[in-house]
Every structure is written in C-alpha cells, then in structure tokens.
Amino acid sequence: MEQTFIMIKPDGVQRGLIGEVIGRFEKKGFYLKAMKLVNVEKSFAEKHYADLSSKPFFAGLVEYIVSGPVVAMVWEGKSVVATGRKIVGATNPLTAEPGTIRGDFAVDIGRNVIHGSDSVENARKEIALWFPEGLAEWQSNQHPWIYE
Ligand code: RTP
C-alpha cells in the first residue's frame, strides 16, 4: 500500500494543531505507520529541502524548520500521496481552499503549518531519510470496511 511523509512544522506544533492534523488523516481512513516529535539539525533540514537549495527563500525556510520541534509521520493508504496533498492544500495559504489544513489554518506561505510529500518517489526518499529505524506493523486485515 502507498505511503507518504507528513511533517507538522514548528508553527503547527506550537499552535496546538497536532491533534487536528492527525484527526484529519485518521478520519479519512489512512493508517499511521510512524510518528515522532523531533528537533532537527540545520544540516538535516537542508537535506530534506535539498531540491530548493537555489531558491531565495531557502535560508529562511531552513531557519524556520529548525526553530522548534516538528512532528514527523508516515501515513499509509490507497493514493495517500495525492490525497494527502489535497488534505494539506496549496503551498500558498492565499490559494489553499477552505477545508484544507493550510486553507483553514495558515496565512503566510512561510508559516504554512505542514509538509506533505509531492510524489510517490519523494515520499520514499523522505521516509528513508526521516525513519531509517523503520515503520510500525499493522494487521493486514485492519479496517476492511474502508478499502474494497
Ligand atoms: P512542502 O514541501 O513544505 O510540503 O511545501 P510544498 O511542496 O507545497 O512547496 P515547496 O515549493 O516544496 O516549498 C517548500 C516550502 O517552502 C516555503 N516556501 N516559501 N517565500 C516563498 O516564496 C516560499 N515558497 C515556498 C513554504 O513553507 C513551502 O511549504
């Protein structure tokens, strides 16, 4: 089954949105496969956002990610990468639809509460980076009423 990497950024943690984010993914029908609250080093944040290293906002983005603890999670389910991006909403909260996490809770693009993998390939890389220790096992027949 497909997996995605979701991170609640320092603003989301400090605003008390951890339960809200987890609730949305749980209620949709996705399985939580790993979760930890961590302070990341600058070099680790730079690695996570390596694709954006040439962007003018890169230094500020890294500074923001290391400014407080983040919640790193792996969620599993059918089409969870694309559906996860929908739950998260557009990068810029100005264009994020109401009903999405960023649409409901964020104002500034540089304080947009949450990260979600943008492709299955990037999800695989991000999960390997953040959870080298591996994921939790669920029973294979868990919640059969959600999936065909
Ligand atoms: P994320 O990686 O955090 O899920 O965000 P994303 O795919 O929706 O957007 P991406 O282009 O990968 O940008 C990563 C994060 O950088 C910050 N950003 N700031 N000031 C700016 O113009 C700007 N553009 C992007 C955002 O926090 C964005 O989530």
Descriptive report:
ATP binds at residues 9, 57, 85, 91, 102, 112. The active site is at residue 115. Its EC number is 2.7.4.6. This protein has helices spanning 10-14, 18-28, 42-48, 58-65, 80-88, 101-105, 120-130; strands at residues 3-8, 31-38, 70-76, 114-116. The chain is an alpha+beta fold and 148 residues long. The protein has a four-stranded antiparallel β-sheet. The chain is globular, with a radius of gyration of 15 Å. The two termini are 13 Å apart. The site of ribavirin triphosphate (RTP) has 10 residues, from β4.
> How is the biggest beta sheet arranged?
4 strands, antiparallel
Ligands in the model, by name, code or SMILES, are: ribavirin triphosphate
**What is the succession of H and E elements?**
EHHEHHEHHEH
Q: Helical amount among residues, as a percent range? A: 25-40%
How far apart, in Å, are the first and last alpha carbons?
13 Å
Mean pLDDT: 96
Radius of gyration: 15 Å
User: Percent of residues in beta strands?
Assistant: 15-25%
What overall form do the CA principal axes indicate? globular
Query: How many helices does DSSP assign?
Result: 7
GO biological process, one term: UTP biosynthetic process
Protein name: Nucleoside diphosphate kinase
Pfam families: NDK
EC number: 2.7.4.6
